[in-house]
Design brief:
27 helices; binds glutamine; 21 strands; binds zinc ion; alpha/beta; six-stranded parallel beta sheet
Length: about 775
Amino acid sequence: MHNIISSNLGYPRIGENREWKKALEAYWSGKLQEDHFENEMKLIRLGRLQKQKEAGIDLIPVGDFTYYDHMLDMSAMFGVIPRRFGYRGGPVSMDVYFAMARGSDGAAACEMTKWFNTNYHYIVPELDNVTPVLTHNRPLHAYREAKEVLGIEGKPVIVGPFTFVKLSKGYEAEAFADTVRRFVPLYEQILQELEREGVTWVQMDEPALVASDSEDDAKLLREVYGRLHQAAPGLKLLLQTYFGSVDWSPELVRLPVQAIGLDFVHGREPNLQALERHGFPHDKILAAGLIDGRNIWRSDLTEKLRLIEQIGRTVPPERLIIQPSCSLLHVPVHLRRETKLDPVLKRALAFADEKLDEIVVLARAVREGTDAVAAELKAGREALAELNGSPSRNREDVRNAVDRISDRPAKREMPFKERQKLQRNVWNLPPLPTTTIGSFPQTAEVRQARQLWRKGEWSKERYDEFIREQIREWIRLQEQIGLDVLVHGEFERTDMVEYFGEKLGGFAFTQNGWVQSYGSRCVKPPVIYGDVYFISPMTVEETVYAQSLTEKPVKGMLTGPVTILNWSFVRDDIPRKQVAYQIALALRKEVEHLEAAGIRMIQVDEPALREGLPLSRKHWNEYLEWAVNAFRLATCTVKETTQIHTHMCYCEFHDIIDAIRELDADVISIETSRSHGELIASFEHHTYDKGIGLGVYDIHSPRVPSADEMLGMIERALRVLPHDLFWINPDCGLKTRGKEETVASLKNMVSAAREARNKLGATK
Ligand code: GLN
Ligand code: ZN
């Protein structure tokens, strides 16, 4: 029997029924007064703490709650407020805080970007032209509140200085270390005040270490944490890493802190090996992330106990903290509200609250022996065995199909250069052809129609007719605008992954499995729980209908296998690669159905290809290899004259350009306009030898760009890209835009294309 500490790293903010989102949106729209809003938030904040206390967690994180985003909270705490928000020092007002997140009349919002390789987005701190000062000690207030109201001695959570600066912008790369040093005095003050308050543990989140491969980082960390330790020697600092392992872990575990947090889910093997090879200091505590904070599956606790034993060869339980692999921010709150899931599936799931229970059971097993929790261990084992043994996870046809393809890369029969010639003859498009990315405005009318149909007020026939009407209208508009390659508009889709998930086998949908994506925006990712298979055509009807209305080519529109995978909760009993291949083979059938129905341009979108990249570059190739192959599996069986398009909406492109080329798509459309030509410049060094459309206008803004402005973009691109491969299109889908601005912008885009063609003709 041993003593062991149970802990948590962070808890969802959104509330069991998204109360948080509702309160925020009511406040923004003026329906909730500031004091009522703050009260509501306080209730949610304390409710989460109370739940963790009742679950029996020893170390409860405080200060991880936020009104928007925890990085934005850090910026506000450090007075890192860009000048344009008119901030004059002192406490940061609610108006300034939300203006940074969402923009205000005079000032554009701060940039928002993905939190590592998750689908959570944080507000990027802007460090230029500001002098950091401590505006208030946030963790201290959080600690006091939990103690005074609930009697909880919380563990304040702070983003550590290394990660905070790594994720910020507004400094030169060479000045990184000095920039970190500028923040150290502020951290020292925070920690001193926490020490004076009687705080025991402080969690310093440093997930950026997982992407660090430099020995210099180790040196800097030693200096910085040495100073922090000296400033508040009475505090126990927990240096927390997650989302993988740290390359230089022998140095990591020797940093001058009292505890090191390691992820034994996403960095399991390397972390175990490092422990065995290099040991762990005898005067330190190891916080072991055992329960997956990124996924929704129940854990096999018997297996986790074996893992504790394995870790125990280096670090005995007395010096262990057991916890999730990362904050539970990335999983939904509670399973209680799921009343419609297949019971076999539901029993095998664990959301945030169920994960806390798992931590507590593990702690009891170590403290009291496994007999004390025999029933819990058995229930978990059986639930997983039942799902693993179910027919849904053992479809022989799917398994055989994947086995047959896995070892050789999928390939189209003819190389691009030859296909291109044949395609040119078939399509006979003008030079610099114009097209769009797929979706057209989902107006209130479209959303309302879907609601009426979902509620049963409209029949399926009536809804389908409504969708056809939209398609008719937009085919007519596209012809009037003068676009060369048309689309049907995606009016029948709410979400590009959900739409396919609902129609493929192997997917399930929760009723309330929301997770925060950014600000008040939450998403409900599909659950890929079984083998994935094609049931019947998913997009053929709408596409064929659209094609029947016009002489111009209509592009079919599919979401790619890697994007479907990366935006879902994925089963973890088989490798992700296998799941990607299963989806790819199912999509291949859709591609073949479209082709057989006469659709000869097919776009397979992969906007999430890049975000699946592992944090450490060392592992990029392995991922890219199967991700690219999944795309090719889905698209390689078509005739040489059928044109495969793809789309990605980001501009960080050059570091994966080889993989993009390997996709072997006939045409790719990508975002450029927001990167102000950086991407175009990168083509001076990298060649791209297949069809490529660079977004010539930013669809994220309602502004209608002029034809001249777009002509400028086109001409600039044509300086580095061959004109016979160049396409003209907007940055991304137009789903969120209004109808009028869309038509006006596309008209200007078509004029710009015509003008560019004239100029080309003149120089030839
Ligand atoms: N075809 C999709 C659309 O136009 C692509 C969306 C995306 O790239 N995220 O909406
Ligand atoms: Zn896009």
